[in-house]
Amino acid sequence: MNRPATPTGDHRLLAAWSDTGRPDSYDAHLARHGNPPNADGRAWRERLIAEVTHSGLGGRGGAGFPTGRKLAAVAAGRGRKVVVANGCESDPGTHKDRVLAQYSPHLILDGALMAAAALHTNDIFLCAHRDGPTYQALGQALTQRPDADRFSLVDIPARFVASEESSLANFLSGGDARPTSKPPRVFESGVAGRPTLVSNIETLAHISLIARYGAEWFRSLGTGPSPGTALVTVGGAVRTPGVLEVAYGAALPDLVASVGGASEPLQALLIGGYSGCWVPDSVARTLHFSHEELRAAGTTVGVGSVLALPAGACGIAETARILSYLAGESASQCGPCMFGLPAITADFAAMASGAGANDRALAARLQGRLSVIAGRGACGHPDGAVRLAESALRTFAVDVDAHLHGRPCRGAGALPFLPIPRRALSLVG
Ligand code: SF4
Predict the structure, then answer these.
(1) I need a surface site. Which of 104, 209, 245, 308 has the fewest CB within 10 A?
(2) Distance from C-alpha of 301 to C-alpha of 255, rounded to nearest angstrom
């Protein structure tokens, strides 16, 4: 088969969607991208890892860790390696991975094969929630492939921390889907004690393209520190919420404009997922979507979501609801997480409901709790909740003051806005 032309334009992962509005079948995928390169010997494996490293690809599951370094660390481990494709996408405000799996599943599967080839292993687990569209889409895609027996598709419990990498390694080793203390890290001792690469499925799809078209092609879009394109879920108070593929460095206002613009005046954006940060709309209008710029602004790319909060909503009540969800998703193994997250949720809920008005100790108590929770869990779950809470206190400072003094805030009387799974709301009523 002739190698198809190298793709141009911003739609690399979602080319099938932008060209046809339909998912790529396996045949259509091969017609678009050709076969993946032949994995041939140790030199090839080392070249692929070097190419991924040179591409600057960062993980797309939340932490943004350099993928080439992760691959090299797993490759350096002793014994047979394992590849885990993480398609769990547990954050309630993000949908990018399920859209990718629905439209370009074969890029994900090729990427998992390329990662496995780089690590000289045949053990590939595809992880997703059985009731979700990612599981269904990957299962359907496997029926089209002659190499389907290379993959094990695994149903993962639908809990937030079940998709943390040590949770997945535990679960695939026969244990509970709960995080474990580190070290050893999963890259050293993961599934069945073997060096394990846990990689988000968007990350794997990028690997599949880098293996075909090279690091320089990958870096031809994006910024120096944030090369390539990224999938971004844009939702909340926008006219046509959806998933975009954009080059890193795109202006945040352009992302909002790409989904039809704001559906009403905005007061803030929640960037990076439910473990991300609130940013005032006035600040967000000046920012670009890149790791370096969002980090400098005190927020994070996180799971790649941008949720717009309307001016008429209550940021404190929304934060209380998200914190309630995060508290309910604790694996209840670490004290600061098990007791600390309900405590800060209760503080936010008291503020939101007005029950905390004139409680002079509330603000200091909350600050004290936030300062002792971060960095104290076995996984990053409580750190994300603290990051969210602290950003809410900064972004909605005017409303915090109003709530604490019994005055109506900007969103007084507003109905709940952001989507929260129902099981999470016990702490805020
Ligand atoms: S920090 Fe929380 S979610 Fe993470 S392992 Fe400990 S109890 Fe579980």
Answers:
(1) 245
(2) 14
